[in-house]
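Regression check, 2-(butylsulfanyl)adenosine case 699:
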Amino acid sequence: MSSSEIADRVAQLRAEIRQHDYRYHVLDAPSIPDAEYDRLFHELRRLEEAHPELLTPDSPTQRVGATPVGEFAAVMHRVPMLSLGNAFSAEEVQEFVARIEQMLGRSEVEFSVEPKLDGLAISLLYQDGQLVQAATRGDGVTGEDVTHSVRTIRAVPLSLTVGSGWPQTLEVRGEVYMPRAGFVEFNRRARERGEKELVNPRNAAAGSVRQQDPRMAAARPLAFYAYGLGEVSGAPLADRHTGILQRLRDFGLPVSPEAGRAIGAQGCLDYFQRMGKRRQQLPYDIDGVVYKVDRLDWQAELGYVSRAPRWAIAHKFPAEEALTHLLAIDLQVGRTGAITPVARLEPVFVGGATVSNATLHNFDEVARKDLRVGDCVIVRRAGDVIPEVVGPVLERRPEGARPPELPTVCPQCGSALERVEGEAVIRCTGGLVCPAQRKEAIRHFASRRVMNIEGIGDKLAEQLVDAGLVHSIDDLYRLDLATLSGLDRMGERSAANILEELERSKSTTLERFLFALGIRDVGESTAKALARHFGSLDRIIEASARMQPYFGDPEALKQSAVKKALAAEPLIQVPDVGPVVAQRLWEFFADERNTRIVEQMRAAGVHWPEHEPAAAAEGPLAGQTAVLTGTLTGMTRDVAGARLEALGAKVSGSVSKKTSFVVAGSDAGSKLTKAQELGVPVLDEAALLELLSRHESAE
Ligand code: IVH
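Current build output:
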């Protein structure tokens, strides 16, 4: 290429990249895949490196400057950056509009209505279409020069060359923000690297812009929306605010697509409602909406009070975050004995509700967030999402606050707690001795998918245990009308209903009964597999009793030598049952208290049909275990499974090393990934059909 051809190519690449930035950030309609964009960018960078004389400061490659700035220089705003008054209720909005209508002597005033982005206010100064300065709001009169960081934000054009007709001096005001997805992704990576996470997208945006090293800001996914003007030379851009926003779009600046117009207080409130509903779906956080009198001559007439305009107001959503105090970390004991730390909080109104406690999930989480009793903490409750303790405000930590100690005994029964290596949970070893576990065990036993005993829920389970009426689940079948109807808020009628339900539940199935026992790691599908394989409870108990258990580190159960030694165990012949579940069954049935409970229930009349053990499969696929995943086009997975079973294969729900092959239809997910990781052969639908037809025709 001749040097003029190279210069042409460089100019062309820059124009194309700017056009794509504009399509992406302003029109929200990208027209090329990211990889193609990267290719253009790379080509431009290569040409500029080879021909440094062609470099210009507004080239898209020049967003990240080479050196960190020292202190931020002060910037005097030639037009002050004002703030907004707030409204927190419909009445306050009505008063705001009424005042305006009265001052103007008009009704049905039109407003520009916009989302109130939750980020950092920034003023961008364009001279002759080139970005020359970016400043924070500061105190409204003097801000800080953050040009070096703001230049790294792709949504901020370095030059206005995509649009046209911009004035010589154009000061654009808007909000720098961090989209939620970028925030989550940033924190995921920070967590992976053991680095500090960002508290929320707003702080993240503010913190990123105020980095001295532009590479720090460049590494963070920031974006920008314009919402107004500062100083502008020449003729006014429009006679309405909505007209200005349109002009800004035309100049190539991003303006929120959610912005619109509304008439009167009712129109504003309708917009508020609409945005309240849309809020969760938006890719960024907003903390309210802003109403601005649309006509600029009316804005001038209305003027300002102190430092806020009379012609605009921010209507805030109930805050999603609030500060409060962490009073205590309580312990909750679940059905399986898992101990969950729960934050007891000084009640605080957040996200439209009063929050006084929040789960902390587990102690790793408590340590990761560095929470200490007495801390001032940020509590977040977004929409209907369960409240969350985001983290402590370290500057306000009281002296002497210590990290909580790991509990060693169960708060309910005093039994020792154990922590399984490699697991985050701490468990109570008390089993059914522990009242908390008993309550949960009853609730689980009675629940719909298990024994389906209507009328026995949380409340009753609690009463039954607290009153000493039920020590273990078999006691349920010893309840009588007098005892039950003697309970608080229990009429004779409901007591009779519950007894009837209990009676009805006695006729059940083996799989439900097994699931009902609450054996750790024996869920619905494992119970089903066990029932199907053995056909009788006694055979399951016998197989468990025969097993030679391993003691010590449960992690050892995953080692291949141990697995090999266990491979011959009858329990392990069941699809879905591996060493860990087998050991759990052994543990459960080796405990006499448990076998007694089972016997008591059988004596009380709990029964289920039994059948012969599943015959060792015959057929060309005998001994093979298949897993089906994804969507098949020619038949359902059930049909495919039945055809494989007819050929002697076992069909299992989860992939392990024991799996002989996985059939993956379209949209297959984690099972396919796991198969690939374990090196288990994968068949697509065509290969499945071939396999079936080969063997079925041979039969
Ligand atoms: S207009 C004179 N419009 O809210 C009017 N501000 O509480 C000045 N903000 O500092 C602001 N979205 O950082 C306006 N659509 C919007 C906004 C918005 C967010 C922020 C801005 C401002 C603060 C005022």
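Comparison notes: Residues 3-62+319-396 form a domain with the OB fold (Dihydrolipoamide Acetyltransferase, E2P) fold (CATH 2.40.50.140). The chain has a mean pLDDT of 89. No diff flagged against the previous build.
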